[in-house]
Design brief:
heterodimer, A: six-stranded mixed β-sheet, globular, B: 114 residues, four-stranded antiparallel β-sheet
């Protein structure tokens, strides 16, 4: 059975800290791995990763994929209170665009 | 701006009512759209894959007679929750995107059945 596992499930840090969120997967017919940020509404897209070892970066956020070990990490440096959210990892499987989601990591950044 | 529009954003209705939720792709044509359900403090669970011009593909455990999906055009998919009951109360989210682009999500519909 396909599965995506995220860790930790929740995390509390202070502003300025750096955090690393983990995502491991066992999915047949892997196509891509995606990271989303969810606040009060639907998820907003952060990164899509398809190749191993190539870091994607956007401001203080970065992510990398290891297709051999079947995992990805999402790094957030110099965290701010606005980074508080649920971070979702999803793996695209097959040719339809179907996504399998992990449980999410709830990040709380305290002032 | 939003590339996927979902409507309505919030529905409160009596038990036994059928509720229709619309999902539109705004800037592109989507032969496939996806419907997810999310309970509080849980992740998104895929309910079904909506296929333009053909029947939807439902995930295991999802009742197709309960959750009717229609994808009559390349920009619109609808999910109808038939004879909704309190246990159907949830956050329903649609997504769309082609195979080379990340899925973009609608803003979701919060359904509350009294």
């Amino acid at each position: 059975e396909d599965k995506v596992v995220q860790s930790p499930l929740s995390l509390v840090v202070h502003e300025g800290d750096t955090v690393t969120l983990n995502c491991s997967y066992e999915v047949t017919n892997f196509r891509s791995l995606l990271w989303y940020k969810q606040e009060k509404k639907a998820p907003t897209f952060l990164f899509m990763l398809t190749s191993s070892g190539i870091e994607k970066k956007s401001g203080r956020l970065s992510s990398i994929l290891d297709k051999k070990e079947l995992f990805s990490i999402l790094n957030i440096t110099a965290t701010q209170t606005g980074d508080s959210a649920v971070y979702l990892c999803a793996v695209g499987s097959g040719n339809t665009g179907k996504l399998i989601f992990g449980q999410g990591t709830t990040l709380q950044v305290k002032p | 701006g939003a590339v996927v529009s979902q409507h309505p954003s919030w529905v409160i209705c009596k038990s036994g009512t059928s509720v229709k939720i619309e999902c539109r792709s705004l800037d592109f044509q989507a032969t496939t759209m996806f419907w997810y359900r999310q309970f509080p403090k849980q992740s998104l669970m895929l309910m079904a894959t909506s296929n333009e011009g053909s029947k939807a593909t439902y995930e295991q455990g999802v009742e197709k007679d309960k959750f009717l999906i229609n994808h009559a055009s390349l920009t619109l998919s609808t999910l109808t929750v038939t004879s909704a009951h309190p246990e159907d109360s949830s956050f329903y989210i649609c997504s769309a995107g082609d195979n080379n682009q990340p899925q973009h999500f609608g803003d979701g519909t919060r359904l509350s059945i009294l």
